[in-house]
Amino acid sequence: MQPSSPPHSDGDTRNQPMLIQNQHVAMPPKVISCKQIVVPTTIFNTQDASVNNDSSLKMAVEVAKTWKPGSTLSVSFIGRANVPDAVIESVKEFAHIWSQHGNIFFNFIGDGLVGLIRISFTPGGGNCSAVGTDCQLKDFNGQYTMNLDPEEDINERSLQSEEGKAVFRQIVLHEFGHVLGCVHEHQQPKANIKWDKDRVYTAFGGHSKKKRDLIDVNIFEHYPQNPAIVAGTEHDKDSIMHYEFTPT
Ligand SMILES: [Zn+2]
């Protein structure tokens, strides 16, 4: 089975309105592209984040796209036969970390079954994921809702070093953070980052208008100051949901 393409490429999302003023209206469906992420001390930026202690969580979520507490989300793999077992098992291991800290669970179902969350390993497809309950939208129509890119550290070689494994872990945690409904931390309403846009465009490869549009969507565009749309704790620059930026 060949991995399929997502119905929403990042290019498709760039012209959709990002700021919806009406309360209780969800943000438009999108697949978030995640190129660079931080190396946090722990996934929640606390040294002693205790299991099932919600007060340790720092995050910002799209309210309308979050799951009912206690939900178990089915997860399947597309093109499983072409992916090393070690990669599959590591994805499962790292995804389950979220369940140690939040009331949400993942059930990795068998070959041939189609999950709510459908993970592809398409080379060059980037690391990306639908946000929260968007994965149920007809737009995805059985196609993948998350891509973990073998060309961007999701491979067996990464697992052979501690450093590589840490990056692999960060990517999986980040993408499953989107599954929970988390938005990029640098775009959450309480983030107040003074951008040097030219430097960011350069650092993230904004050589073309298409690339710059992607950067606009995934970095500069800001969620509205409306807790009915995006609710979150204070801006956490060490969040797993934050891109990595070098200070000027
Ligand atoms: Zn992301």
TrEMBL record:
* Entries under InterPro entries matching the protein: MetalloPept_cat_dom_sf, Peptidase_Metallo
**From the Swiss-Prot or TrEMBL record, what is one GO molecular function term?**
metallopeptidase activity
**Peptidase metallopeptidase domain residues:** 63-225
Listed Gene3D superfamilies: Collagenase (Catalytic Domain)
Q: Name one GO biological process term.
A: proteolysis
Transmembrane annotation, as ranges: none
The name of this protein is: Peptidase metallopeptidase domain-containing protein
Organism listed in the record: Cerrena zonata
